Amino acid sequence: MDRFIHFIIAKRKAVVAFFLLTAVGCAALIPFVKVNYDMADYLPPSAQSTKAVAIMEEQFAQDMPNANVLVRDVDVPRALALKDKIAAMEGVESVLWLDDAADVAVPLPMLDTSTVETYYRNGNALFQVTVAEGAESDAVPALRALVDEEGAGNAVSGDAADTAQMRASMIEQVLVAVAILVPVIVLLLVLSTLSWIEPVLFIAAIGVSILINMGTNIAFGEVSFVTFSVSPILQLAVSLDYAIFLLHAFAAERGRTSDVAEAMARAMRASMPTIAASATTTLFGFAALAFMQFQIGADLGINLVKGIVLSFVTVMALLPALTLLLYRIIDKTAHRPLLPSFRNVDRGLRKVRIPALLVVLVLLVPAFLGQSHTVFSYQNSVPDPSLRAGADVQAVNEVFGKQNAIAVLVPRGDVAAEAALSDNLAQLDHVTSVLSYVSVVGAAVPEGFLDPSVTEQFYSTDFARIIAYVDTEVEGDTAFSTVEAVQHAAAQHYDEFYTAGQSANLYDMKNIVAVDNVVVSLVAIVAIFFVVMITFKSLALPFVLLLAIEAGIWINLAIPYFTGTEVNFIGYLVINTVQLGATIDYGILLTTHYLSHRRVAPAREAVKRALGETFPSLLVSAGILATAGFALAFSSSISAVSSLGLLLGRGALLSLALVTCLLPGLLIYLDPVIRRTTWHASFFKPDAAPTLPSSEGDAS
Question: How many angstroms from the chain centroid is the CA of residue 70?
């Protein structure tokens, strides 16, 4: 370690140059990292819909439609001409319309009414369009331009339109979140430091690690939209503490020696164990996300772990070198303390100690049960009528009702079973029409008599594809029960079948949430339990700290249940580990100071001193994390991101409240247990030394 410290101090200019060049290079790579907006891609390989999508990609020339194109006041010939125009557009893979489901040469009144009205109703045409993955940003605006030429009130909706909207707004929303967060961080850091320039150094060190983290994602090829939105904000909010620890230690050492280089060397030695312990607990909390079946957890978790490691490296390498280059500016921009002294903050907090303990004991069981019954939403975006995308959804729904398709893939060859299944599906509640070879062409018509473009819609080498159109929302009890009914109908005729479509994807997501939540929470708790146990060499302290943080998590997640509001399932799954990993440091910091003072003072006095020393750091850290969460909630129109942000902001404040109000009480009232279960505790004993004055008149 001494060799590393000596190298950083001796080669400070080279170290700063290396990190800056690396950051610039990685920043240049960020635009080339693909952002994936399709949640279905992160379902486990064993999921029904995952297998169905894989089969369709491998064996079918045409994918599932992902866009609805509405054109008002158009006759059949004009609609057919528009279909050809749409099909010829760049990024469009296929177009389905009435002529694919029926013979439009026959007078429409003679055709099946439900089939006709799926595509053509009251002079309005609805085209089912498949836009190629990755082409949404160009194809959707082009489709809108085409239909706008046909008149007012025409619309483009569906998954492709939602993805195009998210792509268009993603960077803007991240920048808005940063614009909210950075000024608040600067303000909090200015208040908590003694130099105007120190906040700039903090943000520069962590900012470099963020750029490197985002640029090195090029090695993965792509990241999810959740990772792209959340990771840089969380990395900034969580790892700023590392920089604060180092520079506070540097300021303290400068008071002991006039040699600036020696002061930094001592500060690095003194702060590295604390920073490493803090980073390790956060790292294990984030790493637990990788145990989710839903693979977006691994995508986000691995990225956050990488970010924490990079933040640790930049704080321990770049920040010392940069500080030594700029310490004269730090001295010239010094200012008096701007925050009041919190040395006696315990006088107020001790009054709520017992009430806080009682309130938590009363709420613990209802909160635990409530958070396990939270109602989830599974979509990424909610239509905003003020935006074109939301207005188009409303327009399509008003004319044609809900547009939702469920594809069923079954083994090819048994025409009788295919016909029976098509008939069964058509009889199900909420199914408006069924598109299959036997329902459109007829079982009696040999495939060889038809153009391959017709048969390719329904048959691959091994599978037949049947598409059931339903009038439900894409999620909710009705939608999911319809998916179950479709699967039950398929099971009556086939031993092997697969379902796909937005509702089928969300149905699979719903089924993995409960398992993922339990597994990820247990992994995070067990990992952090052992880290805390090793850090403090104690069996009782891990239980005490985890109780304080987990109580905050349960209360946080129970609030939506008791208020009757939905929570995006990604936010729910992720917050368990993110809040635990990010805020367990609050408890560790307070407990570290408590144990230090407990060796020379009774429990109550040790708590008083520990709170007085750590309260400013806890306030700043929780303030930054809460601001980061609320900034995400305010700036993002993506349900998964805004929901996670709200939970994170509220969770940070709850963790702060419980660490400052509940944890001190637990440390005091469980002091005998902690003393007996902590290796070489060396706690102060009243009968072994004079009793120091206690703020509450009680030795321990």
Answer: 33
- Are 133 and 83 members of one domain? yes
State both tokens at 252.
Answer: 């303290």
Instruction: Give the lowest-confidence range in 22-26, 209-213, 446-450, 478-482.
Output: 446-450
Phi-psi label, residue 30: left if phi above 0, alpha if psi -120 to 50, beta otherwise: alpha
Q: How far apart are CA 527 and CA 520, in angstroms?
A: 11
Strands 404-411 and 155-157, by their bridges, are unpaired
**Residues of the domain holding 129:** 48-163
Extract the runs of DSSP E, i.e. beta strands, from 489-537.
Answer: 498-500
- Dig out the tokens for 511 from the structure: 């089924």
Which distant-in-sequence residues (6+ apart) come within 8 Å of 318 by Cβ? 15, 16, 19, 205, 208
Which of 578, 544, 526 is CA-nearest to residue 305?
Answer: 578
Q: Does residue 694 fall inside a structural domain?
A: yes
Scanning 601-700, the segments in alpha helix (DSSP H) are 603-635, 639-661, 663-669, 671-677
Of 632, 587, 635, 633, nearest in space to 611 by CA: 587
Tens digits of residue pLDDT in 189-235: 888 888 898 888 889 999 999 999 999 999 998 999 889 988 998 89
Instruction: Give CA–CA dist 617/611, Å, rounded.
Output: 10
The span from the first CA to the last CA of the chain, in angstroms, equals 39
Q: Is residue 41 part of a domain?
A: no
Distance CA 540, CA 678 (A): 7
Instruction: Give the CA-trace dihedral at 57, 59, 60, 64, to 10 degrees.
Output: -40
Task: Give the separation between CA 50 and CA 52, rounded to whole angstroms.
Answer: 5
Reported residue count of the chain is: 700
**Tokens for 53?**
């999508």
Query: What is the spatial distance between Cα 119 and Cα 67, in angstroms, rounded to a whole number?
Result: 13
The total number of structural domains that make up the chain: 4
- Which residues fall within 8 angstroms of residue 55, CB to CB, at 6 or more apart? 409, 460, 462, 463, 498
Pick the closest to residue 553 from 652, 639, 631, 625 (CA basis): 652
**Helix runs in 405-501, H state only:** 415-426, 437-440, 452-455, 477-491
**Cα 693–699–700 angle (5° rounding)?**
140
697 and 548, same structural domain? yes
Same domain, 651 and 557: yes
Q: CB–CB of 136/160 below 8 Å?
A: yes
3-state secondary structure of 55: helix
In a domain, 246, yes or no: yes
At CB < 8 A and 24+ separation, what contacts does 295-299 make? 295/42, 295/43, 295/44, 296/39, 296/42, 296/224, 296/226, 296/227, 296/570, 297/516, 297/520, 297/573, 297/574, 299/42, 299/223, 299/224, 299/226, 299/227
**pTM of the predicted model, to two decimals?**
0.84
Same domain? For 324 and 355 the reply is no
The yes-or-no verdict on residue 508 having pLDDT over 60 is: yes
Degrees to nearest 5, angle at CA 635 with 634 and 639:
80
Asked whether residue 522 is assigned to any structural domain, the reply reads no
**C-alpha dihedral sign at 212, 214, 215, 217:** positive
Give the angle subtended at the CA of 448 by the CAs of 445 and 454, to the nearest 5°: 80
Indicate the pLDDT class of residue 689, thresholds 50, 70 and 90.
very low
